[in-house]
Amino acid sequence: MLVKIVLTLIVIMGALNLAGFLTWVERKQSAVIQDRIGANRARIFGLRLLGLFHPLADMIKLIMKEDFTPRLGHKTLHMLAPFISVFFALIAFAAIPIGDHLMLWGHPVSLQVSNMNVGLLYIFAVMSMGVYGVFLAGFSSNNNYSFLGGLRASSQMISYEITMGVSLIGIIMIYGSLNLQDLVQAQGHYWLSWIPQWGIFVQPVGFLLFMTAAMAETKRAPFDLPEGESEIIGYFVEYSGMKFGMFMLSDFLETVLAAALLATLFFGGWQIPYLFSDGFHFPWGGVWLIPQTGVALLGVLSFSLKIIFFCWFLMMVRWTLPRFRYDQLMRLGWKMMLPLALMNILVTGLIMVLLKEFIL
After folding, report:
1. What long-range pairs does 277-282 form, CB within 8 A, spacing at least 24?
2. If DSSP states are collapsed to H, E and C, what string results for the chain?
3. pTM above 0.85, yes or no
4. CA neighbours closer than 13 Å in the CB half-sphere of residue 40
5. Sign of the torsion formed by the C-alpha atoms of 280, 113, 214 and 337
6. What is the pLDDT of residue 69?
7. Closest CA to 262 of 305, 221, 298, 227
8. Strand duo 195-196 + 275-276: pairing
9. Which of 196, 198, 285, 327 has the most CB atoms less than 10 A away?
10. From residue 201, how far is each of 189, 225, 322, 346 by CA, in Å?
């Protein structure tokens, strides 16, 4: 029990710190893309460290700002909405395996907060609850612009959740499980003894559809119509201080969650090619034995690097592509991505039947 509590704290603190770190990454990465210096003014004892103190300065500023609530708004719902968004974005990490297992005092400890046999359904369930946070924010503000922003956000999130779920049915059909640890274990097998059976190789269309839908779920550009602070006004226009900061935090948490799911479902999760429980076994015959603790830590490091890569990639897309119009957003989701996801299921099933009948 104590080990699980420590693991839970590690996962929560890791997700929160990475989300906070992304506020600096976003500024620096956009500055590099646009040939600017970026945030570099915050300093402690004269040290600037490439602007790494800016997230800390932002947090202090948000805490010190006035906590405004509209006079005719619903005060209870207005206060609860940002907590709902952050809470459901955070608890989704419980089902994600950050590693295989670690031997502690002779007992194997699974590096997963909760090993659920319906982990994938659990994640989709809690992600769908996040819609209530943005809708209640727009509804409780007693502001027509906030309400329209809340409606835009809700319809966008619900629309792309359907495509997200349908795009993963091919993965479930192939690996035969909803348990994320089982899905990662299944990706540890090889074709011809050297090609890893990662989800990206068996479901390339599903990967592209899931990644696009996940970007829409995070409400980041080019899918940032629910927010659009400077042009069309979003659901949190009546929020200030730390409650506004919590909405921004939930967006970055959702980005980390999307990166973790992409790594888990399509890039082997914590798996490293040719790394087995006792060390590396290379297809050309070489063997490099590693203690079990080292293997477990390498898996955690591999998973962390994959998450960082996808966070960087999602940020790059966010600062590269222009925003969709709302009709384009809905057309992409309902008329292009959803039919493609359904077609992907049909093709996957057909290929599985043909392989079973004529090859296997």
Report:
1. 277/100
2. CHHHHHHHHHHHHHHHHHHHHHHHHHHHHHHHHCCCCCCCCCCECCECHHHCCHHHHHHHHHHHCCCCCCCCCCHHHHHHHHHHHHHHHHHHHHHCCCCCEEEECCEEEECCCCCCCCHHHHHHHHHHHHHHHHHHHHHHCCCHHHHHHHHHHHHHHHHHHHHHHHHCHHHHHHHCCCCHHHHHHHCCCEECCCEECCHHHHCHHHHHHHHHHHHHHCCCCCCCCCCCCCCCCCCCCCCCHHHHHHHHHHHHHHHHHHHHHHHHHHCCCCCCCCEECCEEECCCCCEEECCHHHHHHHHHHHHHHHHHHHHHHHHHHHCCCCCCCHHHHHHHHHHHHHHHHHHHHHHHHHHHHHHHHHCC
3. yes
4. 9
5. positive
6. 87
7. 305
8. unpaired
9. 198
10. 12, 32, 29, 17
Phi/psi at 175 (5° precision): -90, -15
Greatest alpha-carbon span in the chain? 72
Output the pLDDT for position 360: 60
Question: What is the amino acid identity at position 211?
Answer: M
Give me the pLDDT at residue 44, please: 87
pLDDT < 70 regions, the chain: 229-232, 359-360
Q: How far apart are CA 310 and CA 11, in angstroms?
A: 18
The C-alpha atoms of residue 327 and residue 161 are separated, in whole angstroms, by: 18
Tokens of 4: 């699980």
Strand partners, 267: none
Report yes or no: 320 and 33 within 8 Å, Cβ to Cβ: yes
Please provide residue 269's backbone torsions phi and psi, each rounded to the nearest 5 degrees.
55, -120
At 256 the pLDDT is: 95
Give me the pLDDT at residue 322, please.
87
Inter-residue contact 93 to 127 (CB < 8 Å): no
Give Cβ neighbours of residue 326 (< 8 Å, ≥ 6 apart). 152, 225
The amino acid present at 53, given as its one-letter code, is F
pLDDT of amino acid 232: 65
What does the alpha-carbon distance between residue 338 and residue 162 come to, in Å, rounded to a whole number? Answer: 8
Give the span between the Cα atoms of 213 and 334, in whole angstroms: 11
Contact yes or no for 258/214 (Cβ under 8 A): yes
